[in-house]
Each structure stands twice: as C-alpha cells, then as structure tokens.
Amino acid sequence: MSTQIEALFTTALGLQPPWHVAKVELNTGKRRIDFEVEHTGKRAACPACGVEHQLIHDRVRRSWRHLDFFQFEAWLHAEIPRVQCTGCGKTTQLPVPWAREGSGFTLLFEALGLSLCRELPVRQAANQMRVAAKRLWRRVRHYVEVARAKDDMSGVRHVGIDETSVKRGHQYITVVHDLEARRLLFACPGRDHQTLKAFADDLRAHGGDPATIEHACIDMSAAYAKGIGQSLPNAQISYDRFHVVALANAAMDAVRREEMRTSAAAVREAVGAHSKKTLRQLLWGMPPGSE
Predict the structure, then answer these.
(1) Is 200:165 a contact under the CB 8 Å cutoff?
(2) Distance between CA atoms of residues 289 and 168, nearest Å
(3) Cα(64)–Cα(107) distance, integer angstroms
(4) Is residue 23 classed as helix, strand or coil in its secondary structure?
(5) Of 115, 121, 32, which is closest to residue 71 (Cα–Cα)?
(6) How many Å apart are CA 182 and CA 233, to the nearest integer?
(7) Where are the beta strands (DSSP E) in the chain?
C-alpha cells in the first residue's frame, strides 16, 4: 500500500526516472504533507559541460514549498546529487525538474504567486499563500528582470508619459507606455525631466532609438516637455484629453462665475431663470464655492 502511495504522488508531481517519491509524511495536526524525493542514478551528465556518465560526488539536501495538496501545506525534500566532472574539472549540482536554481519554491508555486500578484497587492497575495511578502517580491523581481531582458523596443514610435503616486506621502513615479501596443515600457521614481533621460537610456538598452520616437503624449508637465526636448528630440508633443478637457471646464466655469457676478440680470433673461428654484439649479451645476 505504501509503495502505491509513493507511486501515486510520483505521478501527481510529474516526476520522471531517475527521480521518484520515496516517502510521504502527513501531519494532520500541522496540516502539512512532506514528500521525500530521491534520485536513484549513480552517474549523470555534467550540468556545466554536458559530458555524459560522470560519477556523483556527493549530495546536498534541499527543500521547496509546493502547491497545497488537499488543503495541506506541501513541501518537497531531496538530496540533490553533485557531479564531479572529469571533462571540465568542476563539481556541479544537478538541476531539479520541479524548481529553478536557487529558489525555495517549486515552479508551480511560483506560477501561482505570480498569477495572484497580477490581481492583488503582493502583501495580500503573500497572505493567501502563507509566505513572507519579501519572498514573493524576490520572485516578482526575478521574473520581471528575465522578461525585461527579452523585451524588444525597436518598434516603439508613439509613447504616453504620465505620473502616478505610490504608497503615501506623495511619492511619485513616472510611467511610459507604448500607445500602439498598449503596454508598459518603463517606470522609475520621480517626475522631473531626468526620468525621460532614464527612459531613453533604457530604450537604447532594449534595441530602441530615442531619435525614432515620433509622438509623446503628456499631461502638460513642463518637466516632461523639457525632458522630451532633451532626450526624445524628434517627438511631437500632444496633451492628453483629460487635462485639456479639465482646463476647458475650469475656464468655462470662470466665465460663468464672472457673468453671474457682473451681469446676473442678463444671465437670468438669457437662460429664462426667472424663478429662484431655476436659479438655484443653475448655481448647483457650478463647482462648490463658484457662486
């Protein structure tokens, strides 16, 4: 029966020879299940140079947090072989198929964490997974760096530049989006013209050329306009519609207030507001304090 259980979990974990589950320990009090995984081979290929049939030098014990099984917290433990290679002379630890090198989480557990972090703040995701937030942050940073290293910005021509606040105390970051692909390209602390220089440097590092940026949409920030002139020399500037409409509304409200102050009788006559009720409704439509 015990052999059948280990075989069942070997299949459930997707392990292939020479890896298999040798022992399963269930602790119902701690709501935890531990899997002891073994590598049964005596020889292996060198991970560093690929030379086949190298002797296993020793084994190093490691543990990984895995996805829950039946609502029980699951852990994998294994003695990982290290190969002493006669070809390159190095002693190298074998990679394991269920986790990336240096991680204390299995690949599936990391995938769950990243999926949650797309929808939730990292701290909330960490609470759901019952891990420290800083451990989850390390995984997020790792995969963001991996993805950004592969990012190709050579085709970027139209960008949107804006600021947003993070945390509390008016801490601002600048974000740059590709308006055609509708994706985030860059983010950095601050909201001055130097942030555009940092973007231009990052654009070059990912195959792009600041001189090929044709259009930049901003929020009427003088600092961003200065940064575009210095770092994106060929970009035409446009202002986003939200700020343009907000300024137009503010100007219209100023005109209405001045007309009500200087020519109230003419305004009443023009809009037909002869009753106090209609006048109150007209004033209500203005911003607080405008009347």
Answers:
(1) no
(2) 29
(3) 10
(4) strand
(5) 32
(6) 22
(7) 19-27, 32-39, 43-44, 54-69, 72-84, 91-93, 158-166, 171-178, 183-189, 215-218, 236-239
Q: Characterize 74-107 residue by residue with b for buried, 16 or more Cβ atoms within 10 angstroms of its Cβ, and e for exposed.
A: bbbbbeebbbebeeeeeebbbebebbeeebbbbe
The one-letter code for the residue type at 201 is: D
Q: What is the pTM of this model?
A: 0.74
**Inter-residue contact 84 to 71 (CB < 8 Å):** no
* Local mean pLDDT, 10-residue blocks, the chain (291 residues): 80 93 94 96 92 93 94 95 93 95 94 95 95 96 93 96 81 94 94 95 96 94 94 94 81 78 71 63 54 44
Helix axes 264-271 and 241-262, enclosed angle (nearest 10): 110
CA distances to 161, 163, 179, 229, 247 from 216, in Å: 7, 14, 9, 11, 20
Sign of CA dihedral 58, 63, 64, 70: positive
Give φ, ψ of 72 to 5 degrees.
Answer: -100, 135
Joined together, the tokens standing for residue 114 give 């990243």
3-state secondary structure of 142: helix
